[in-house]
Every structure is written in C-alpha cells, then in structure tokens.
Amino acid sequence: MSIITNINKLFDHRIRLGIMSILMVNEYADFNMLKELLGATDGNLASHTKALEKSEYILVEKQFIGRKPNTRYSVTKLGKAEFRKHIEALEKLIKKT
C-alpha cells in the first residue's frame, strides 16, 4: 500500500477542501457564505460544489427566502467519512516525511 492510498483526489483542489472544511464544522452554509469565506467566483464555486454533489459528499437544498432564491449546502454521512479519511491520510503522510 502506498503512503498516498487514502488521499482522496476529489479534495485536491483548495476550493473543494475549503467547502468541506466549512461544512464539517457548520450544519450548513449557503452559496454566498461559501463564496465570501473562500473568495471564489460564482462559476468557480458552482463547479466545485457540483463535483462534490455528484460524488454524494454534499447535499444541495434550493429554497426561497422571501422572494430571493437561496442555495444551501450540507455534508452527507459519506462526505464526512471520506473527508475524515482524507485528513487522516494527510496526517500520516506528514508524519512519515
């Protein structure tokens, strides 16, 4: 087994890593909150959240607050497990190098 076996390629990008980090410590975050915290553009954030949603690591909920559309995200059980596995793999890698 390689020392990078459990490192999840889906979390390689800093925006995806940031999204997952925010969602791991918050019950949910909406699009504008993620955009502001990560300093991402609309298109960039949308493409990264789509990738995480496609892998079933996050849930997307669309609603209206008053007359304004609101999209919020939360992490799934699978997403939590995979992210924890990824972080543990990074910690092991750092300790071995």
Strand-helix topology:
Blueprint: H1 14-25, E1 29-30, H2 31-38, H3 42-54, E2 58-65, E3 68-75, H4 77-96
Antiparallel strand pairs: 1-3, 2-3
Q: Return residue spans where pLDDT drops below 50 for at least 5 consecutive residues.
A: none
- What is the terminal-to-terminal distance? 16 Å
What structural class do helix, strand and pairing data support?
Answer: alpha+beta
Order of helices and strands: HEHHEEH
Strand content: 15-25%
Instruction: Give the beta-strand count.
Output: 3
Radius of gyration: 15 Å
How many strands, what sense, and barrel or not for the largest sheet? 3 strands, antiparallel
Q: What coarse outline follows from CA principal-axis ratios?
A: elongated
Number of helices: 4
Provide keyphrases for this structure.
single chain; 97 residues; alpha+beta
Describe this structure in words.
- The protein has 97 residues and is of the alpha+beta class.
- Helix content is 55%, strand content 19%.
- It contains four helices and three strands.
- The chain has a three-stranded antiparallel sheet.
- A hairpin with a 2-residue loop joins strand 2 and strand 3.
Summarize the structure.
By secondary structure, the protein is an alpha+beta fold. The chain has helices spanning 14-25, 31-38, 42-54, 77-96, and strands at residues 29-30, 58-65, 68-75. A hairpin with a 2-residue loop joins strand 2 and strand 3 (68-75).
